[in-house]
Amino acid sequence: MNGFDERFLTRNGLAARQLAVLLLNHEPDTRLPRVRDFAEELGCGNGTVQAALRLLEESGAIETAARGHLGTFLVRSERSVLWRLSGLGTLLAAMPLPYSRRYEGLATGLRTAFEEAGTPFAITFMRGAGARTTALLEGKVDLVVLSRFAADRLIEEHPVELVADLGPATYVGAHGLLLREGASLDAPGLRVAVDHTSEDQRMLAERTFAGRTDIEWVESSYMQLRDLFAQNLADATVWNLDEVQGRTGMGGEVLPLGDEVTRDLSLRNSSAAIIGRTEGAKALSAVRDAVDLSTVTSLQAEVLRGERVPSY
Description:
elongated; alpha/beta; 13 strands; 5-stranded mixed β-sheet
């Protein structure tokens, strides 16, 4: 279908658009649900479903074949056409600012994987998982990229659900305990830099220094660490080492994180997760089925190794 097609504004056309969303979740050469099952799910009559299927076939979105008592099979589908007809539009994903090569690789992999899946996709960059989640809940974006650790917490508190988990080291490489040169972790009144816009960093810092009542928290972002440490305004912090590499500008120490709980948090924090609004469950299901996560991780790895120029 090229351009505007008034057939898709009719009752049968509306059913066809709804049916297109459902068919995004079906692979070629698989049996389709019965017409009456589609009709029940869409809340329409059998005749409307049959007319909707004909519209989708005429538009080039699908090809079906009846195989007797075995039922009707989906022979072929054009995901890009189905997506366009479904009315789902371009998916907008909110990601962290691309200030590390790892995030550049992640953006490159996501853009390519969505393109290969025939799904229109765009990226906007926003600092802070909280700000990205607010944009998601307000309907300003469709997907949010954040750590699995932050995703788990948000899923418990808001009507959002997990779309994908890309695995360890896809969000950050590692976290470490940064100690200013000349500072001592045992010193009373240790001044610890914390970024309250980052749920991950705040929780890791609080877990690392749990049990110490003498800590003085100093609000900071990764861009301020160099000045805070150089001007003796902060003594330590827990931070994403991808972000601070080459930015602190001093000979401080990088120490491993502590107990088992902190290491578990750090592992979940290192995994990139994608979440979406629960109300868009059918679209999210289509995304899960369409996007090849191995494409995302392999392209990210190529960017990290310097074998691919970031493109997003």
